[in-house]
Amino acid sequence: xxxxxxxxxxxxxxxxxxxxxxxxxxxxxxxxxxxxxxxxxxxxxxxxxxxxxxxxxxxxxxxxxxxxxxxxxxxxxxxxxxxxxxxxxxxxxxxxxxxxxxxxxxxxxxxxxxxxxxxxxxxxxxxxxxxxxxxxxxxxxxxxxxxxxxxxxxxxxxxxxxxxxxxxxxxxxxxxxxxxxxxxxxxxxxxxxxxxxxxxxxxxxxxxxxxxxxxxxxxxxxxxxxxxxxxxxxxxxxxxxxxxxxxxxxxxxxxxxxxxxxxxxxxxxxxxxxxxxxxxxxxxxxxxxxxxxxxxxxxxxxxxxxxxxxxxxxxxxxxxxxxxxxxxxxxxxxxxxxxxxxxxxxxxxxxxxxxxxxxxxxxxxxxxxxxxxxxxxxxxxxxxxxxxxxxxxxxxxxxxxxxxxxxxxxxxxxxxxxxxxxxxxxxxxxxxxxxxxxxxxxxxxxxxxxxxxxxxxxxxxxxxxxxxxxxxxxxxxx
Length: 478
Fold this sequence. Notes:
Layout: H1 2-43, H2 45-50, H3 54-104, H4 110-147, E1 182-191, E2 194-204, E3 209-213, H5 220-228, E4 233-240, E5 243-244, H6 247-255, E6 257-260, H7 271-275, H8 287-293, H9 297-302, H10 320-333, E7 339-343, H11 351-364, E8 369-373, E9 386-390, E10 393-398, H12 400-405, H13 409-424, E11 439-445, E12 448-451, E13 463-465
Parallel strand pairs: 3-8, 3-9, 6-7, 7-8
Antiparallel strand pairs: 1-2, 1-4, 4-5, 9-10, 11-12, 11-13
């Protein structure tokens, strides 16, 4: 009987572990969804209020809470049921043990009292063992969630690391790293069952600088994401320096890639820590040079603690343009860069600064392969080569001057951009002479808004439309 009690104490939690583990994992998934929702709500508190989205946010919160409550009740019910079953079986066996013993003996002795004590103690010990057993799936689920990102496979076949090949532009300066050669043959990328890149045939020589343009959603960033490892080819072949892209070559390519994008995170750490986040100790010797190259001296002069000033979460202490320059400086501080990927790298800066910083970036990475994704089509005229992406396909590939001279998609993008700058932001020439101008020009300088005299403006002048009727006004900010 005693052995039966021990066996039941161990068998019940063991047999019920899959059931308890599944319910516990479901509960943790819903708890993680709630935690993510709370973080998003805190970060987006101002936009939520601005767009009056409180009701929608509450509705989403309620749906998450309902699922979390259901999974909580299910988990608690299974836990209580398992404990009840174990206790009932153990107590029943203990009672059977005592009944069988006293049926064979006459009277009650001290040994009988000791037997009763241990008979009642065994179910309690079994309950303790069952409690420990029920902790196992919970701890296992926690560890699985912690290790999941660390053990995620690259899903790429192994290959030999690529051998750097010196480019013609690098022969003059052997101290600079060689650019990387990229070739995509019949490439096709799927996401969510839909093709986001199709029929991609592309060869980029080591050290070549290429601009990528196209309408929003055309697939420009997806092309860059293919090199960063965000996407995998569902069809075709991608080689880096003649070697197929594999798990080890992808990691080596990432270490040699400088990436500038508005989505690159700025941490709630000091200016210096943010700048040196992607570089080792050997890069710190070039901090002064990088600050000058990224035009960060003016930003640094306004920070009360200089290099040690915390920037706030997401760079909240900086403006959008200043944050972009910090991201550029972080990329410039990297050593051994063979591939520079610039995806809308100067968003938030005025047109003059964008042109100057792009020229500085191209000089900085003059020996590296550079891909620049931009909506400023006019800025790409200074490149030797431009790719036009449309609906996930590279529809044009050539020298900007040649493409601009013909009836091409690139030429149409240039004309559309020129029309916006020359016509859309100017007053209507057909309006009556005595009519009030349709735009008011407000300049922001040194933190002060000053209204200028009415004049024809461009997108870079940050014009403000005059109110059409009393009490109504629209603001256009570039």
